[in-house]
Amino acid sequence: MAKRSPKNCNPTAWENSTMTDTREVKDEKPCRGCREMIHGQALVCPFCRTPQKISTTAAALNVLKWLGGITALVSLVLATSQVYYLFSGYREKQALLEELVAAAQIQSDSGDYEQALSLLEEARTLDPVNRKARKARVDLAMEYIRTRPYWHKRTPDTVKRLLPDLVRSVSAFSGQKSSDINAHIAWAYILLAESGAGKFSVDPYLEKALDLDPENMFAHAFKGYWNLSASNGTGNKGVDEGARIRQSLSHFNQALKTGRERDFVRKLEIRSLAEFSGPPEQRLELFRLVISLHREGEMPDKASRYKLIEFFDCFMYDHDSAAVLSNLALSRLDPRQLLAAFQWLYQKDPDIHIPGNVDFERYHFVSAVLTRGAGDQTLALALFRQLFQKLRGSSMYRDALFREVKIITRQNPD
């Protein structure tokens, strides 16, 4: 194969040099540009005119070019590594947040609200703006204050600690959630007012909650309770007792219709009616509620059940308000329905069969009184006599029993 003719070269001279060229291969080198074999001492390639020696400046530029490329590559590797670690750290943080929120829910479900709060506080420290953790803390705060009785000495401190979380979250949510939060802010202030911590503005938060969600269960339940609260001096000015209790019952009924937290609504309703200090005519509503619960088979929780049972002690007391209330109950309500409802409340309590305790004495005393009210004087007298034989010497029902026996014997002298 013939060799290429160099550029700008005399063809005759090229042919002669080719024919007479006896130099060895070791005197040749490949061109830096086109890679053709050229004279070993050539400064410029005769084929592509590429200089065969690199100047110091060019060498420096080449070195700088390579260094720039290496630097860019290292920077790319470092950036990729940083992104990876940042992403890995984000995933790890999110996983930890999920664990903390889940653990807080478990603690809350078991009633350990303080531990749940501690876990969510750790989650807030890890990521202050995480929406899931923030929602969990708001839900916990609302549930926690619903469980606090106003009379507990730690309730004011607990409520004051949780209230800022609710206030800060009002604008962060909308719809039913925002309505729930406003209602619970009102409830927090109700608890503070009833615990004697001061006077607070409650109604604006309840009104805001009902504006956001007219059917909000919490707002209606808390409004029903607040209407009957002795601490609500401002909201009840100029409102007669009958109107107050009708408004409260209406709000409780609205809350029950939603189907949310039915047991909680009933608990509030029973508590507000039992503690209501209005006239006896209005306090009859609690007896009506007992009859309704029995008819529907809706047994309240243990604490509410016992509050209802204790309300029947009005038949034992002889002071004026109790006497008026017991007489109204026997005259305006069906004593047989009252008796059935009362015994239903006590149906699973073994103490009613064991003499020597207050539940035994209350159960048999009230049953005898309601039996008398139902018109069966003979059976009532027999029940009183049986109870008398088993009364404790210090029983608070002793005087009431004698009083009842006198009523029966006076009405039936024979």
Task: Report on the architecture of this protein.
The protein is mostly helical and 414 residues long. The chain is built from 17 helices and two strands. A hairpin with a 6-residue loop joins strand 1 and strand 2. Helix 4 packs antiparallel against helix 5, helix 5 runs antiparallel to helix 6 and helix 14 runs antiparallel to helix 15. The protein starts with 10 loop residues before the first helix and ends with a helix.
Q: Roughly how much helix do the residues carry, as a percent range?
A: 55-70%
Order of helix and strand elements from N to C terminus: HEEHHHHHHHHHHHHHHHH
- Output the strand order for the largest sheet: 1-2
| Strand segment count | 2
Mean residue pLDDT: 84
What's the end-to-end separation, in Å? 152 Å
Which shape, going by the Cα principal axes?
Answer: rod-shaped
The largest sheet, given as strand count, sense and whether it forms a barrel, is:
2 strands, antiparallel
Determine Rg (CA atoms, Å): 45 Å
Structural class: mainly alpha
- Tally of separate helices: 17
Low-confidence sequence ranges: 16-25
Give a short overview.
The protein has 414 residues and is mostly helical. It has helices spanning 11-20, 56-109, 113-126, 131-147, 155-169, 175-194, 203-212, 217-228, 241-257, 262-275, 280-296, 302-311, 320-332, 335-345, 358-373, 377-388, 398-411, and strands at 28-30, 37-39.
